[in-house]
Amino acid sequence: MLILFRLLSRLPLVVLHSLGALAGWAVFIASPNYRALLRANLTRAVGPKAARALQWHAAREAGRMALELPAIWCRPIPDMLKLVREVRGLEHLERARAAGSVAVITPHLGCFELVGQYAASMAPLTALYRPPRKPALRPLIEAGRGRGMMKLAPADLSGVRQLLRTLKRGENVGLLPDQAPQNGEGVWANFFGEPAYTMTLAARLIDQPGVTALFVWAERLPWGRGYRLHISPLPRLEGDPAARAAHLNAAMEALILQCPTQYLWGYNRYKTPAGVKP
Fold it and tell me: Measuring CA to CA, how many Å separate 142 from each of 43, 115, 127, 138, 191?
């Protein structure tokens, strides 16, 4: 698998994205369960009429997300970073780095794998990581993500402690705030109008002294031209854990609706984790 990814990484990004678009449409057509999940999630966000118009675009972008991974994980880091054509809001990141630690908050929007690599090219960054269900994929994913100054922390209590220690050292952390947490690590909060079990970790990290939280996402440009990074301050999260989770989800909703076709609608965001009361 690693050899295949290295071979694919030599292809131009426009070829990878073209192959990804075909793969995304093929899966959308062939898998009724995936098609139903994508449609249902997209409908929650934009309504049935807009969902019908956008569903093929969303399936295409999901395929591109999968086929761009070889370029992000296997190209030499300087070559991979050249894919970033523009950065909007870089001043927010520069101010945050000057003030202390940065919590890089990245939803499943656009090329989220690129965001951690970009942030880690400037300073050490530790990202929360949940190993894949298929053990055979673990060496590939860990080799792709854990490059340069990027470190991985397991998505459990030990990993949370590792992130907190990282912030106390004045270093940066990253996490996907819309990833369904395990039992005891989240609360129920509305996400596009329906309860979703939402992590409380993001608010805990932001509360640490000297930490600035930023939304960072990488927009996929057309015709394989690369990516445009968007950096913006995370709105202040206030109240109890449930209120903070609701504020975080609302902020993510606004972010996702800036480019709804590039959100990972095929992810089962509304599942009930084992042991959690529905």
Answer: 34, 16, 11, 6, 30
Task: Please tell me the distance from the alpha carbon of residue 140 to that of residue 69, in angstroms, as a whole number.
Answer: 11
Task: Compute φ and ψ for 164, nearest 5 degrees.
Answer: -65, -40
- State the pTM of this model: 0.93
CA distance 176 to 272: 18
pLDDT of residue 88: 97
User: How does pLDDT run across 99-145, given as a tens digit for each residue?
Assistant: 999 999 999 999 999 999 999 999 999 998 887 777 777 888 888 88
For residue 268, tell me if it sits in a domain. no
Give pLDDT, residue 128: 86
172 assigned to some structural domain = yes
Q: Beta strand pairing status for 227-233 and 211-220?
A: antiparallel
Query: For residue 121, what are the domain limits?
Result: 2-262
- Taken in order 162, 165, 169, 174, the sign of the CA dihedral is positive
- What is the number of other CB atoms lying within 10 angstroms of the CB of residue 143? 13
Alpha-carbon distance of 144 to 248, in angstroms, equals: 28
Total domains in the fold of the chain: 1
Long-range contacts of range 31-39, CB-CB < 8 Å, 24 or more positions apart? 34/266, 37/265, 37/266, 37/268, 38/62, 38/265, 38/266
Structural domain includes residue 272 = no
Residue 158: Cβ within 10 Å count: 9
From residue 131, alpha-carbon distances to 66, 74, 180, 183, 271 in Å are 17, 19, 14, 17, 18
The span from the CA of 215 to the CA of 231, in Å, is 6
Question: Is 270 among the domain residues?
Answer: no
CB 64 within 8 A of CB 21: yes
CB contact at 8 A, 201 and 181 = yes
- The ranges of the chain with pLDDT < 70 are none
